[in-house]
Every structure is written in C-alpha cells, then in structure tokens.
C-alpha cells in the first residue's frame, strides 16, 4: 500500500517540466540566432555585387545559389512547424503509484532546425512534406473494481496520511517561487531589450580602389593585420570616455546575461574597449572570447570584465580594418615556423604611421600596399626577406602608373602586341590538348650536307632536318587596320562579309558588335544601347560616327577582335559657354537645325575646354575663324554665359566606380 503526497508529486512534475522547457528554449535561441545570421548574410548579398564587372556574373550566381539554399531550409522548417498538432492541456488527475506501460509510439523523422541549417546543400528531400501525423486513439481511463486510486491507512480524516499543514507550506513556497520567477522574467526582458538596442554599430565606409589613405598598424595575426585609417586620438578619447563611464556605472553580470550579449564593453586592466562577444568557453573558468573591434585583437576575458555596450558609444563604426598584403603570395601556408617569422617581422611595424594603397576591396580583408615613411613598401620587404613570392611587378605602387581601365577599342595601339594573344601561344596545344614535342626528335648537331648525317654517323637515331636554314622563306603578316578608311574597307570586303557570324545570344547593352547601316548596306562598328524583345529591334550607336539608330536583330553580327584595335573615332561634344533660353520643344528643334547647318559635314577647329567621363566641352570655330556659339547667339538660339578652362593635365585616367 502506497502513500501519495500530492504537493510533493506536483513539485517534482513541475521541476521536470521546467527543465525540459529550459532545454527547449535554449535550442530555440540557438535556432533564432542561426536564422538571424542567415538573414544578415542574405541582406549582404547585394553589397557583394559592388565588384569588378569581370567578377559580377560569378558573384551573382553564387549569391543566388546560397539564397536558394536558405529558402529551401526556411521552407522545410515552416512546413514542419505547420504540421505540429496542438497537444492540448494536460490533465492533472491523481494516478496510481504504479507506473503503467506506455504504448509504443511510431518513429517519426527528426525535424531539427539546427540539423537543417548545417546542411551544405539545399534540402531536396520531401520528408517534411510527407509526414502524416496520425491521431492516436484516446485511452479511456478505467478503474477496476478492486483498485483504488489513493489508499489511506484508516477511514479517519485524510490529515493523518496527507497532512494539511505541509500542503499549505508547499503551496506558499510555490507561490513565492512563481512571484520570484516573474520578477526575474521582467528584469531579463528589460535587460534583453536594452542589449538588443545597444548592440548595433554602424557599418564601415568602403575604401575606394587605387586610392591612398593614411593609417596605423594596430595588430598582426599571421599574414593578416589590422589598420586604423582614422586619427588614433579619436580612438584614445573613446577609450577614456568608456573607462570613466563604466568605472562609475559598473554592474556585475551573470552567465545568462553574458550569453545574450552581441557587442559589449570589455576591461583589460587598463581601460575599456568596444568588443564583439564570440562565445563562452565552457571549461568552468567563466571565460569569454571577445573580438576587440577597434584594434582587431581576439582575446579571452573573465565574465566580470564584460559590460553591456550602451548607446552613447555606438555612434562610430569599428575602427579596425582587416587587411592583407597585395601582390605577394606566402611561400608556405602550412609552415607554422615560417608564418611565425613573417608575423614577427610585421610586428616591428605595429604603431607605425604609414600610407596604404587599396588594391582590392571586394572581400572582408582588404588587399593593400603598405607604404612606410621611408617610401619603401612592406610588400617589398616581405619579398626581399623571402617570406613570400612577388605576384606582380616589384615596382613600388607609388612609382607605378595607374592602371588604365577602358574597353579594348580605346587602348593605344602603340602598346599592343598581337603575339600576346592566347591563340598565338601554342595553337596545337589549344586544339589537340597536348604540347608538340617533335623538335625533341630532331638532331641538334646536324648542319646540313649531302651525307644527311651528323658526326655520330649511323649511331644517331634522330631525324636530320635543318632547323634554322640560312635562307628564311618570305611570309606575310596581316596587321589590324590603322585608319578609319582602311577599317571600313576591310569590314566590307567580300572575304570579310562571308565570315561574319550571327550572335548566339541576345546582345547585352554596352556590347560591341558589327551593325549594318541600312542606308548604304555597309557594316560598321557599333555599341548596343538598348533592345526590345517584341519586335526584336536593337538600338545601336555607330561609335566611329556618333549616329544612333534602331536596327533589326538579324542585322547584328559578332565583331572580330582585329577590328577593335582602332580607337573609337567619334567623341561626344557639347558647346562650352552656352545655355538654352527656353525649354520649349520647338525652340530646341530650331536650335538643333541651325547647329546642324553650321557644323554638319564641315571642317571646324575645336578648342578643348573641359573633359568629363563620356563627353568633352569645346569651342568650335569655322574656317573663317568665327565662333559657332556666337553665331547661334546672334540668331537668338542660345544665351552666352561665362566659362573657364578646366586644367586636368595631371589627371591620367578617370574611372567610374561600380
């Protein structure tokens, strides 16, 4: 016969349920953090498209692939959670002391969000969609005739077996515990809201490629290092303000409060720094791993050194920028001894005020050239000490001419070498896939003669062919057209017309093509401006004449490489020092007609006033020396305004950043 204390049984069941709920909430927090990471990463896909046009396609496809993977994971999770049935409320009915045998439950596939988030590939299984939760038959509780739910030792008052005083004490303890937990929940909610509001720092500004910035090396870790491009006094004043604030407003934090931190303030014994909480080291020492955002260091601190970062210190972005040396390649990545020597060499320049030239800003780590105060580059020093191999030319970036980024047709033909094309390296290897080694079978000692043998005589088993005869046979070389007249003649020759290949894909805006001019049925170089799919028409601009025209898609052909060496002959120009007195369309049409009469098909003198990315401002004079702008003003077509010459002789190249 058993005696059941209802209050004690309730407390045990309640504690067990709370333990399970805490485990479930902890897993939910992990899942929510993983979903937030996916969301943040997905929002950053657009920023990855700010890259070189050559890498745009690869980055776009990679971002779309990752976005599809995230979509599959979230869809599987939503389907799984949508099929969970409401378990209903539990019935707290007294049960016998003996534990009944439970019916076997069907095994269902695991629906764990954390496992789904760790999958490297999109989930293609339909497991979550095919799960059918069959309703369990309700078990009716039947009481046997000879079985009692609670047995008492006597027929007297139940206070002998279950004392009422103990029940009242336990109920009071439960009420006190509930009130205490509600107070803790309110405090934790307030703290979590404050931490969520205070853990957001603004993003760092992007440093432009080929620009030079002043910086100070703050930290070195292997081949990576961290640089502050702002004034170090600003960072120093921020640390002093944080130290003064947290000295007066220090609050000790427990493990639960530390785990929910994102950005924090951390004390190293001297002053406070802004940090990013990484994880809690579970070795019983209550140690947290923190990344200091203003110096680039990753260090471990006791949780007593951590404080929540308040809003007044979240106005400025992280000052430290992760960098690596551009134009060099470490000799051995896995040689820890060599990496330690490289790190020791770079540590000598910590705190040095230097200049950095940005070579690559397409990733989280900037590729830079570090120019020291003595005009030497840290990149050259690393190569000279044989810690790395030079990838590019060892010339200092300060002495190098800036790279010219322009389409092939604008490249100066004096710097072109037709033999540098990949099709001229080894055509046999390009077609057959192997390198021709026939010359290895030719005897290098044979100099010619009637005997057709070398000094080895019959012992020589190699072929006896004259490799370098004295009389070199004559041959011809076809050079690209050097003038517009020869270019048009070559593009419209019968031999060239039959070789034109139609485009396999729809031309993209900006693509160089060969377009037919309907008025004379000749082919000219053109650039695609826009296109319409319904009528298959393409708007092109003939780059050697400036004419804009709509042509059919079948009047577009692939432009061969030999026709791109000559620079574009037409340049867009605007008259300097003129403005239109009216916005009336008829007045604009009249001014355009008069300008055509004064300039169309006539030899003029042009004085360059200023240059822009795609046009130049000029003064035009006819053969008699009269200004075109003044003639337009005399006819009341335009108004004259003052202007000045923009001196850009020192500007070598202008690049439009994407």
Automatic annotation (TrEMBL):
Spans annotated as Disordered: 117-137
Listed GO CC annotations: cytoplasm
Gene Ontology molecular function terms on file: zinc ion binding
Lineage top rank: taxon: Eukaryota
Polar residues bias spans: 120-131
One Pfam family recorded for the sequence: TUDOR
Positions of C3H1-type zinc fingers: 437-467
Residues covered by the C3H1-type domain: 437-467
Domain Tudor: 506-566
Keywords assigned by UniProt, alphabetized: Metal-binding, Zinc, Zinc-finger
Signal peptide limits: none
This protein's name: Tudor domain-containing protein 1-like
Source species: Bombyx mandarina (Wild silk moth)
